[in-house]
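The records we work with from here on pair a chain with its fold. Taken together, the tokens spell out the fold as the letters spell out the chain. To see the layout at work, look at the sequence and tokens printed below.
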Amino acid sequence: MRYLYLFLATALVFCGCHKKEKSAGETIPKVQVSTPMVDSVTLHRTYPGYIRALNSADVVARVSGQLLTQNYKEGDYVNKGQVLFTIEPSKYRDAVQQAQAALNTAESQYAYASRQYDAMKRAIEADAVSEMEVIQAESNMNTAKAAIQNARAALSTARENLGYCTVRATRSGHCSIATVSTGNLVNGEASPVTLATIYDDSDVKAVFEIEDGQYEIMMNGNRNQENSLLSAIPLKFQQPLPHSYTADLYYVAPNVDTGTGTIVLEGHFANKYKELKDGMYVSVDLPYGTEPKAILIRDASIGTDQLGKYVYVVNDSNKVVYTPIEIGELYRDSLRLVTKGLTPKDRYVTRAIMTVRNGETVKPFE
């Protein structure tokens, strides 16, 4: 009996130890890990900018009077030559009639003066008039001829001003809201008054500024470009648009703003889907070089705290190590460039980073 009790006690101790070791093994969490991807990456720097229509033109009133009509709705696409506004024409119609009458009078006076001159030339041959009278007749004829030219110029100006009473689109594009409401007076004779602006946004440009030092880096990193300008620069907008856009860098300002130390750049591209408007905010991802052996990890695996960015690395002892890192730009929408803190051989936790703790022992799997 004594030996039986001893056997049972030994068995219970063995079973208890075995059960305890199994339970302890089950509490070690499994975490998914991965090693960084190493790839050649084009480096970008993002700059804020805005969209501008490649071409625009002000619609102006060049004459004075009451604005009678507005013949479009704000935002409409208008065609070149389309009537947009009309201004009270009575004053200028009267001026045309007066100028026409003055021209008729000048032509009549010239006809009389030329006939008189011809008569004087015949009369002097018969010694019926003096040479001075002939000279005076010729002078009268030339004065009448000059009066015709002046009257024709005045008539042309009067007709031109009358034409300005009908304000037409100087180019095709989308027309802005009117700055003057119908029924109000405009004083275009003193100085042209802007009534609206037409934006030809079939082609647009992204206008932005970069630091002069960054411009030098960009140019050095793209020496193989034929004209030192870049193409297919990625663009982003405040809200995702149905289509993606890239711009070709066509313009670089000839000078650096000494106050800000920046230089203005413009990228041109087609607005073929008519989604973009003059003045829209845009972010320009400007390429400035390449990193042939860039370290890339999943962007979702990066945490943020008061010290900055971090990841959890699993070391050779399968312990979790809190690892601060420095990061660069997003790559292919899901990967993040790591500029400091990781090596290509490090195993980092890819998922559920909120469930692991620094120093914790884990079972890693890929």
The longest strand covers residues 37-61. The longest helix spans residues 90-125. Residues 1-15, 17-25 have pLDDT under 50 and may be disordered.
